[in-house]
C-alpha cells in the first residue's frame, strides 16, 4: 500500500500538471481569439478605403466634411504577413516597398509593376493630393533613377533604370492633373470608363457647354476670354470638391459622372488658353 505522504506527493504533482495544461490551453485560446478580433477590427472598411459622414447636397453649395482615413487592409496582411522581397544582387531583404535601391549593396532594383502610382510617388490616396509634394518627389526620383546615371553600369541595371524612369514619369503625369487622377482612383476601385469619362451627359448640360463654346468663339478681347476662363475655373473648383466628397463617401458612380463634367470644363479651359494666345 502507498503511504499517506506518497499519496500527497502524487496528488500535488497531478494538480500541478493539470494547472499547467489548463493555463497553456487558456493562453492558446486567448491568442487565437485576439488574432481573430484584430483581423476583424482592421479588415473590413465600409464600401471603400475611406470612411466619411458627409452631406453632399448639390454642386455649388458648401460641402462640410468630417472624415477619417484608414488604409486598405486584409486578413492576409494582418495574420499571415506580407511576402518580403530580397535584393537580386546581394540577396538581403528589401526594407521598403516599392524598393528602388537595396539599402545593403545600394544596387538598383527591378520596378514593381503592380505598385500603385500613389505608393510610387509617396502620396496619400486622395483626390485633393498635394501637387507640390508630388512634384518634389518626382524630381527626387528622376535625379536618382535617370538612365544617364547608369550608363557605365551593367546592362541589367541600365534596363531597370529605364523601366523605373518611365514608370515614375507615367505615375507623375497621371496624378498631376485632377481628371486623370480621379479616373485612376476609379480604376483602382475596379470602375473603368470608356474613352475617358463620357457618362451620358444630359441635354441641358450639353446645351450650357455649347453656349460657353460659342461665347468663347465670339470673344473679341482678352478680357472676354479671361472672364470665361475665370468662370470655368470656378466650376472646376466646385467639381473638385464634389468629386472628392463622392470618393470619400464611396459613391464611385457619382464620382464617375462628375469626372465626365470635369472633362468638358477642362477642355474649355484649354480652349481659353488657345484663345488668349491669339491675342498675343
From TrEMBL:
Database matches in Gene3D superfamilies: DnaJ domain (1.10.287.110), HscB, C-terminal domain (1.20.1280.20)
Compartment(s) where it occurs, according to its Swiss-Prot or TrEMBL record: Cytoplasm; Mitochondrion
Pathway per the UniProt entry: Cofactor biosynthesis; iron-sulfur cluster biosynthesis
Keywords: Chaperone, Cytoplasm, Metal-binding, Mitochondrion
A GO term for molecular function: protein-folding chaperone binding
Keyword set includes Ribosomal protein: no
Stored Pfam families: HSCB_C
Chief location category: cytoplasm
GO biological process, one term: [2Fe-2S] cluster assembly
Residues in J domain copies: 116-188
GO cellular component, one term: mitochondrion
NCBIfam families, sorted: hscB
Function: Acts as a co-chaperone in iron-sulfur cluster assembly in mitochondria. Required for incorporation of iron-sulfur clusters into SDHB, the iron-sulfur protein subunit of succinate dehydrogenase that is involved in complex II of the mitochondrial electron transport chain. Recruited to SDHB by interaction with SDHAF1 which first binds SDHB and then recruits the iron-sulfur transfer complex formed by HSC20, HSPA9 and ISCU through direct binding to HSC20. Plays an essential role in hematopoiesis.
Family from the record: Belongs to the HscB family.
Family matches, as HAMAP family: HscB
Subunit description: Homodimer. Interacts with ISCU (cytoplasmic form); this interaction stabilizes the (Fe-S) clusters on ISCU. Interacts with the CIA complex member CIAO1 (via LYR motif). Interacts with ISCU and HSPA9 to form an iron-sulfur transfer complex. Interacts with SDHAF1 (via the first LYR motif); the interaction recruits the iron-sulfur transfer complex composed of HSC20, HSPA9 and ISCU and mediates the incorporation of iron-sulfur clusters into SDHB which also interacts with HSC20. Interacts with the cytoplasmic form of ISCU and with CIA complex member CIAO1 (via LYR motif).
Protein name according to UniProt: Iron-sulfur cluster co-chaperone protein HscB
Species for this entry: Zoarces viviparus (Viviparous eelpout)
